[in-house]
Amino acid sequence: NPQNQTMEFQAEVKQLLNIVIHSLYTDREIFLRELISNAADALEKLRYQRVAGENVDNEELSLEIGIELNEEQNSLSIIDTGIGMTREELIQNLGTIAHSGSKAFIKYLSEGDKKDFNLIGQFGVGFYSAFMVAEKVTVESQSYLPGATGCTWRSEGAGSYTIEDNAELTRGTRITLKLKEDAQQFSKAETIKRIIKQYSGFVPFPILVQGEKINTVQAIWTKNKNEVSEEDYNEFYKYVANAYDEPLLKLHFSADAPININALLFVPKTNLEGFGFGRMEPGVSLYCRKVLIQQQSKEILPDWLRFVKGVVDSEELPLNISRETMQDSALISKLRRVLTGRFLKFLNEQAKNSPEKYNEFWETFGAYLKEGLATDFTHRNELVKLLRFESSKSEQLASLQDYLDRMKEDQQQIYYFNGPNRETIEASPYMEIFKDKDLEVLYTREAADDYILSQLGEFEGKKIVSVDQSDLDIEGFADRDQAQSLSAEETNDLITWLKDALGDKVTEVKESKRLADSPAIVLNPDHLSSSIQRMMQLMNK
Ligand code: ADP
Ligand code: MG
Predict the structure, then answer these.
(1) 20 to 30 Å CA-CA from 432: which of 37, 147, 452, 465?
(2) Which residue has the higher pLDDT, 109 or 188?
(3) What residues flank ion ligand 2 with Cβ within 5 A?
(4) What's the predicted TM-score (pTM) here?
(5) Can you name the residues that pair with 515 across neighbouring β-strands?
(6) Do residues 441 and 434 touch, judged by C-beta distance below 8 A?
(7) 44 lines ligand 1 (CB under 6 A)
(8) Cβ within 8 Å of residue 24, ≥6 positions away
(9) Residue 101: per-residue pLDDT
(10) For the residues of 184-229, what is the DSSP string, one character each?
(11) Is the minimum distance from the CB of 34 to ligand 1 under 6 angstroms?
């Protein structure tokens, strides 16, 4: 009977199946994600055909994914009303490998001790993961093409499969897994619901388990902002961030140029690293057309934005992109650059429109932006604008731009000074001249601040200098009241005596006009502030 064929799997598929069937993987449950993602793809394609005005068989069928469980028979079916497959497509898609995915995946699995089966979908061979839990797989499929004949495909995974005609079907695909004895948990509704919530919560089609719709969470990042309520956003945040509270900030945006992006990003209220949780994993997952490509992607944002949570979806990503290709993909770099730029712009908008909220953000996550400034030159200009400091002129945090705006007309430099707190800084003799001249000084607290400022060197053409630099050239110095000064001779005698007394503890003793009340001051000969010198001393130990 020509309608009833027995076919051999392609050699590479055989090899892959052999590994899949005979290996004990702990994360077997990912098979469900793979089959659901295939069902969602098939539905997505059908949706496209409909949108494109093509004739579609069983037009009236609603686009959804059903899961039927039979505990007695130890089986599970995944049913979709998607595009379906013809006989040729079944042979092509489930028996041969169009791309080199299977070979690459086998190589990946055999190299070293990397055995992350989770990646199977990223190699474009997700279907075969069904054989991790099933001793027999049956695929009944009816193509959407009017007039196509339905077919049943069967395999036990051992080298061959059969195909026969089946006239009883409606459009779409039903995949039935006769579960292995040790995989009985996958015929139980609570297990299946849990797995779906974990991996497929945002599949953009209803998923019904035993007729009950369970994925209430929608792919809200692809919706219009005015279609999403604040409550939806908060719920979604709790889901993606594993959080129990609400986010501090939220950015929802879409763009078509220079690259297609739908993104929904959140900043939490608390910084876990600050609570001693160790280094955080990145918190943004990468989707392509609402199908998860990479959870907690390390590639999609720079490491210093690891506190950001959310979802990025780009239609331009190939669905089967692997982690290896992701790292050096020009597309991913472009995505990262655009996304980072947009996020920093958003922070700048926040700073302008809701400064109090921004300051709260800065207090919690400012250190990450400083990390960005110190390690990443790509976004330097945007990051500099986001810096905040305490200031001698204001109780509010000040940006470098605030400083410029308040600057005296002929002032040429931006001054800063490092100290443990405001009181100590303000009592310091270094500050005398600045109080006297009514010049603003930014107060830095951490060596990291000084490191960044000395790296920057200038802002908008104004030199940035630490007030403890010896060659500090303070505007209008010389006009200080000299009436009670020592004579030149007395000064010289004092200097000679000090040099003798201090010996090689100092490199130089000089007359200075910067002090008002204190008799003497210690200054740094180099262009390094004291806090950086302290840091360097620590590092050299
Ligand atoms: P990938 O999804 O990355 O292409 P898979 O191994 O998961 O790799 O699936 C192989 C192919 O089988 C798919 O590309 C698709 O053409 C076809 N396929 C699998 N499941 C379905 C389905 N439910 N409906 C229609 N086609 C399917
Ligand atoms: Mg797939």
Answers:
(1) 452
(2) 188
(3) 38, 126
(4) 0.61
(5) none
(6) yes
(7) no
(8) none
(9) 65
(10) GGGGSHHHHHHHHHHH-TT-SS-EEETTEE------GGGS-GGGS-
(11) yes
Which residue type, as a one-letter code, is found at position 257?
A
Considering every ligand atom shown, identify the ligand nearest to the alpha carbon of residue 94 and give its number.
1
DSSP-based three-state secondary structure for 231: helix
Window from 44-58, 66-80, 299-313 with minimum mean pLDDT: 44-58
Atom index in ligand 1 nearest the CA of residue 80 equals 23
Whether 483 has a pLDDT exceeding 70, the answer reads: no
**Gap from CA of 141 to ligand 1 centroid (Å):** 12
Residue 122 annotated as part of some ligand binding site: yes
b or e along 83-115 (b: 16 or more beta carbons within 10 Å of the residue's beta carbon)?
bbbbbebbbebbbebeeebbbbbbebbeeeeee
Tokens 């910084």 found at: 271
pLDDT tens string 512-535: 777 767 777 777 766 666 666 666
Instruction: Consult the annotation and say whether 123 binds a ligand.
Output: yes
Q: Does the beta carbon of 86 sit less than 6 angstroms from any atom of ligand 1?
A: no
Whether residue 233 has its Cβ less than 6 Å from ligand 1:
no
Is 101 a pocket residue for ligand 1 (Cβ < 6 Å)?
no
Strand 413-418 to 462-466 pairing? parallel
Distance CA(443)–CA(221), nearest Å, equals 41
* CA gap 420, 423 in Å, rounded: 9
Greatest Cα pair distance in the chain: 119
Length of the chain as a residue count? 541
Q: What is the pLDDT of residue 116?
A: 65
pLDDT tens per residue across span 289-314: 776 677 788 999 999 999 999 999 99
Q: Does the beta carbon of 153 lie inside 6 Å of ligand 1?
A: no
Task: Say whether 240 counts as a known binding-site residue.
Answer: no
Q: What is the C-alpha to C-alpha distance for residues 271 and 352, in angstroms, rounded to an integer?
A: 23
Amino acid at 13: V
> Rounded mean pLDDT of 318-346?
81
Q: How far is CA 163 from CA 88, 95, 174, in A?
A: 10, 11, 14
Buried/exposed 506-526: b ≥16 CB within 10 Å, e otherwise: eeebeeeebeeeeeeeebbee
Taking alpha carbons only, the member of 105, 65, 31 closest to residue 325 is 105
Amino acid type, 137: V
The alpha carbon of 368 and the centre of ligand 1 are apart by a number of angstroms equal to: 41
Evaluated on CA atoms 503, 505, 508, 511, the torsion sign reads negative
Distance 34 CA to ligand 2 centre (A): 5
43 lines ligand 1 (CB under 6 A): no
Between vectors from CA 270 to CA 262 and to CA 392, what angle results, nearest 5°?
A: 105
CB-based contact 418:447 (threshold 8 Å): yes
Q: Identify whether 420 is preceded by a cis peptide bond (ω within 30 of 0).
A: no
Q: Which atom of ligand 1 is nearest to the CA of 39?
A: 23
Q: What ipTM describes this predicted complex?
A: 0.99
